[in-house]
Structure to design on (423 residues):
């Protein structure tokens, strides 16, 4: 019999939202509610899609403090699922280990399974008297679990697809702590059909057949790369033959962290820049489909406003005017930060007239850029003249003769480094 389940992880309920520059009170209030609102959206999703069960693969709470509000809201959501005949399977992760922190809840709703810490548990899921699937899981007792917990889960007896729930770092992902470390091969060799993982906040399918999947977190928590963009949960369809289909991502976040690069090439003045950033903000807000957006922008490229941007206080005041422009209605756009990584305009003609080393460099670069054969000859010279260790070390960093764009980048960088007229 076919069925569906929901796979979510890293809810971090009541997360404090770190790493933000000063936010307005309206923004702070929305942020406080965002993780709980996303959880409520998860409950609505499970009900509307009539799933057989919901998987929560660790880091349900953000920390040992475990706010009372978060615990009550979690209990309320799981009770609603249980009342409708939907099971929930929960494991604890490094942010909410079972033996640390405290629980305001003494008794969970009937259809909620918290997997134990000492050894993996397994449950056969039934619906209308029919066995659907076998679900395994093991929880973190303490925060820093360095044991490979995946090694303790293997396929046993049981009907339907075998699904394992675990909070783990597969393949040494450097963006997250190396808790319950394991390799993809460990999971592939286990006989499990679907590894429902948590811990890594970037959504990813690591393997198909068997499925090894991170759904990512439910709600972004800060402006870092792993927290940006759409966040939510996966709906997984299992057909009558027991085949597991490609998970479907459903956006459930309430506030979205976005990052954009914006070039100052051809931007005449700060007024024009402000107008363009306002447009950028409106576009990002529209793309978020009714959600509020926290936007961080990095200014790149070269232009006449490079110097203006480096005037004391200029960027801070620019951000202030942007914030005044757009924080009014819900959903709101909040300008978190504008970073400046721009370069000054290079006036090569002016540099050529200097009759110094910089002029020689510009002249040499112009020759190389104009002539394929000169570039080929130069690369051959490197092979002859540079120590072979160095050539090996530089590898792909050395431009190829047939890639003029890289040579142009190298010229720009070299001229910037030696011309020394940066603001
Ligand atoms: Mn997490």
């Amino acid at each position: 019999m076919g069925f569906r389940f929901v796979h979510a992880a890293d809810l971090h309920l009541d997360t404090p939202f770190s790493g933000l520059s000063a936010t307005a009170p309206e923004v702070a209030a929305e942020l406080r509610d965002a993780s709980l609102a996303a959880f409520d959206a998860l409950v609505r999703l499970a009900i509307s899609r009539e799933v057989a069960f919901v998987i929560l693969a660790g880091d349900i709470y953000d920390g040992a403090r475990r706010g009372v509000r978060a615990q009550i809201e979690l209990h309320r959501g799981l009770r609603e699922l249980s009342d409708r005949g939907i099971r929930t399977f929960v494991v604890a992760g490094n942010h909410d280990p079972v033996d640390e922190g405290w629980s305001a809840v003494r008794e969970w709703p009937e259809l909620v399974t918290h997997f134990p810490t000492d050894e993996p548990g397994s449950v056969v899921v039934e619906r209308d008297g029919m066995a659907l699937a076998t679900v395994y899981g093991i929880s973190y007792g303490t925060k820093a679990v360095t044991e490979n917990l995946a090694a303790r889960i293997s396929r046993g007896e049981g009907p339907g697809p075998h699904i394992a729930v675990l909070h783990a770092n597969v393949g040494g992902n450097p963006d997250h702590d190396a808790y319950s470390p394991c390799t993809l091969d460990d999971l592939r060799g286990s006989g499990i059909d679907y590894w429902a993982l948590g811990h890594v906040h970037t959504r990813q399918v690591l393997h198909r057949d068997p499925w090894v999947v991170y759904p990512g977190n439910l709600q972004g928590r800060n402006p870092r790369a792993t927290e940006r963009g759409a966040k939510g949960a996966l709906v997984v369809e299992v057909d009558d033959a027991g085949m597991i289909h490609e998970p479907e991502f459903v956006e459930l976040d309430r506030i979205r962290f976005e990052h954009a690069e914006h070039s100052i090439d051809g931007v005449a003045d700060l007024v024009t820049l402000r107008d363009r950033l306002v447009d950028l903000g409106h576009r990002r807000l529209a793309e978020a489909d009714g959600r509020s957006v926290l936007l961080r922008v990095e200014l790149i490229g070269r232009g006449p406003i490079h110097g203006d941007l480096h005037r004391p206080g200029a960027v801070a005041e620019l951000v202030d005017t942007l914030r005044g422009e757009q924080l009014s209605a819900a959903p709101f756009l909040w300008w978190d930060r504008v970073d400046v990584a721009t370069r000054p305009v290079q006036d090569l003609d002016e540099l050529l007239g200097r009759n110094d080393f910089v002029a020689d460099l510009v002249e040499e670069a112009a020759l190389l850029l104009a002539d394929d054969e000169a570039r080929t000859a130069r690369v051959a010279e490197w092979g002859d003249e540079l120590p072979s260790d160095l050539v090996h070390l530089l590898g792909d960093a050395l431009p190829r003769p047939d890639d003029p764009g890289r040579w142009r980048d190298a010229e720009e960088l070299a001229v910037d480094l030696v011309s020394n007229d940066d603001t």
User: Anything to note?
Assistant: The chain has three domains: 3-251, 255-340, 348-419.
